[in-house]
Structure formats: structure tokens, C-alpha cells
Specification:
The protein is of the alpha+beta class and 361 residues long. It is built from 11 helices and 7 strands. It is 65% helix and 10% strand. Strand 6, helix 11 and strand 7 form a beta-alpha-beta unit. Helix 2 packs across helix 4 and helix 9 runs antiparallel to helix 10.
């Protein structure tokens, strides 16, 4: 197991001052990486290489925590597990691909806008010209004395009318195409916004949204002198379910438990999947004891949930830690107190709720 204090590789918060230092840092990691993987029987696939490169750098504590737990249980980092880990920890790259698609759609629309502007200008010129033709033709018709003199005027007017109609048809076609691009861009932007904020499996908010929104809830609570509490939850012995029944049933358990947490959050609660089988519920206007009752409600709902696999009921339980926000403390301190209460619940038998002590000011 790798702990931060055990590492003799320069950590990311001591960023290299120049390229030479950066190269030296990467070479140090690479020299340790392959022996580390070979010793533990980890296939040297590109995804594993990326995962364990970051693991040795300790660049993502959550990644290290997850891999440490897997290593403790002698997990085999073959293709399925590697894919799941890679998708979970590097899905921001998928967001970047989505963002690139949006940028392309936006560029297409800019090009289309230029064409439309040109088309509108041409249409205006054509309309002005056609209006002049009509005016001139009207004057000439008042001076026509014979049918033979009328025919050339009618031929010219017909030709100009067809030209004007063709120009308008082209403009309408461009406008229709632009509308399709706009609709596609709007749909993609909406989809991208959802992907950036919501966990794909459970449909709860993700860590990214939590870190963006939690400070606002803390500031609001302090400003209005209202309580704010956080409930940290972690499913008990979740790995046993995955090992015994597979990840499909494991995902089913996560979805059902997430639904119970979301339902308990009411209208203004923020339910978050923090990663793996760990969840968080922010509870505006609830003090420590009220939030503890809410956590107990969730614990019972999950304990009593009818979750089955292969005709057998799965014994799913959750442990929870609760902390109330103290105005002036930072987000890390606030959530760490809830996290410590959670691990107290784990140490004291699981399937229980524990309340955090108030931080010393």
C-alpha cells in the first residue's frame, strides 16, 4: 500500500521550475513504475500505465485510496477493472472530447452565420433590384401601344421574378440549415452541462459539482445564521457484493442506494456520489441532530431495501458520519469531520450513524 509520506518522488505541489526538472521527475516515476507493476502482477496496458503513473505520483488521493483498497484485496487489474477505473478517474477527457465537439459545432455555426449574412445582403440587393424592375415595368406598360411591345416586358419581368424566387429559396435553405445547427448545438450544450455535473451511473451530482456548489451553501448558511450539515455515507463491505455477484449487480446496488439518498435529500438537499461506494448529502437548514436523524432514515431505507441477485436477497447496509458546519471553517475541515465520524461508525461495527465533534476554533 502506498501512503503519501512513503514517497521519495517530488509531489505535484512542488512543481518543477523548468523542463529539465520536470523530465527528471517523470523519469524517476517511470523507473519505479514497471518494477512496481511487475512485482504485483499488474498487466502493463496503456490504461494501467496511466493509472499507476498517477498512483506513484500521488496526484489524486482518491485514486490512491481506491487502488490501495484493491491491492489489499489482491484485485486483478485486467481489462474490465482497468477500464472501470480509467473511465471513473479520467472521464474529464471524455468531457474534453465533448467540448471539442461543441467547439466544432460553434465554429460551423459561425461559418454559417457569415454565409447567412452574405445571403441576406445578396437577397436585399436582389429585392431592391426586383423592386426597381417592377417600378420600371409599370411605367413602360403605360406607354405600350401594341401587344408586340408588351411581350418583351413580360418576358423580362418573368425572368427577374424567377431569379428573385431562386435567391429567396437559397436564403430560406440556408436559414433552415442554420436552425438545425443551432438546435444541435443547444442540445449538445445541455447534454454537456448535465455530464459535467452528474454521475453517469447514479444520476447524483458528482465531486466537480460538489466542490463548486458547497462553498455557496456554506456562505449562505453563515450569512443567514442557518444550520448546514453534511452526511458522509459509505456502503458496508461493498467489495464482497462485486466479488460474489459481479459489477452488474454492484452497479444495481449503487443505483438503488443513490435513489434512497436522493429521496432523503428533499428539495434543497444536494446528494453527491463522491466516488466508488461513497456518497455525501448536504442538508441546508438541518442542525447536527436533525441531520443525524436524516442519516438514520437513509440507513434504515437501505437496510430494508429489497435488493436481490440470483433470487437471493443481498444484505446491503451503510455507515454514516454527520457534521454540522461551523461558520468560518473551510470546506475541507467541514467534510473531514463528517468523514472521521463515518470511519468511527465503521470501526464501531458498521450499519450505524455517528456524529462529529465540533471543530475547535
Amino acid at each position: 500500500m502506498l501512503n503519501k509520506n512513503d514517497i521519495d518522488i517530488p509531489l505535484p505541489d512542488t512543481a518543477p521550475d523548468d523542463l529539465t526538472e520536470e523530465l527528471a521527475q517523470s523519469y524517476t516515476v517511470v523507473k519505479k513504475l514497471l518494477p512496481f507493476m511487475v512485482k504485483r502482477g499488474i498487466p502493463a496496458s496503456p490504461k494501467n500505465y496511466r493509472l499507476f503513473y498517477d498512483y506513484l505520483l500521488y496526484s489524486n488521493p482518491t485514486l490512491n485510496k481506491t487502488i490501495n483498497e484493491l491491492l489489499d484485496h489482491n484485485a486483478k487489474f485486467y481489462s474490465k477493472l482497468s477500464m472501470r477505473l480509467y473511465d471513473h478517474f479520467y472521464n474529464s477527457e471524455a468531457f474534453e472530447m465533448k467540448a471539442a465537439a461543441i467547439s466544432k459545432a460553434a465554429a460551423d455555426f459561425i461559418d454559417m452565420s457569415a454565409e447567412l449574412e452574405n445571403g441576406l445582403s445578396m437577397a436585399f440587393t436582389q429585392t431592391s433590384h426586383y423592386q426597381k424592375i417592377l417600378t420600371d415595368s409599370s411605367k413602360q406598360m403605360t406607354e405600350v401601344a401594341t401587344p408586340d411591345e408588351l411581350q418583351p416586358l413580360l418576358d423580362e419581368l418573368l425572368s427577374e421574378t424567377e431569379t428573385a424566387l431562386a435567391a429567396n429559396d437559397d436564403l430560406f435553405s440556408r436559414i433552415s440549415e442554420a436552425n438545425q445547427i443551432i438546435a444541435s448545438l443547444k442540445a449538445e450544450l445541455k447534454n454537456q452541462t448535465t455530464l459535467a455535473l452528474v454521475d453517469e451511473l447514479t444520476k447524483l451530482y458528482n465531486r466537480r459539482h460538489f466542490h463548486a456548489e458547497a462553498p455557496r451553501l456554506m456562505n449562505l448558511a453563515a450569512k443567514k445564521a442557518l444550520p448546514l450539515s453534511a452526511i458522509m455515507l459509505d456502503l458496508d463491505f461493498f467489495k464482497r457484493i462485486n466479488d460474489a455477484w459481479g459489477h452488474v449487480h454492484g452497479d444495481k446496488v449503487l443505483v438503488i442506494c443513490a435513489a434512497a439518498i436522493r429521496a432523503a435529500g428533499e428539495e434543497d438537499g444536494m446528494a453527491v456520489r463522491m466516488g466508488g461506494e461513497e456518497f455525501l448529502l448536504m442538508c441546508p437548514r438541518l442542525n447536527l441532530h436533525q441531520a443525524a436523524l436524516k442519516a438514520e432514515e437513509i440507513r434504515l431505507a437501505i437496510q430494508d431495501a429489497d435488493i436481490t441477485a440470483g433470487g437471493e436477497r443481498l444484505p446491503v447496509t451503510v455507515s454514516a458520519g454527520v457534521a454540522q458546519y461551523v461558520p468560518g471553517e473551510d470546506l475541507k475541515t467541514f467534510i473531514d469531520r463528517a468523514d472521521k465520524a463515518l470511519y468511527q461508525a465503521k470501526r464501531e461495527g458498521r450499519n450505524t450513524v455517528r456524529m462529529a465533534v465540533v471543530a475547535n476554533k
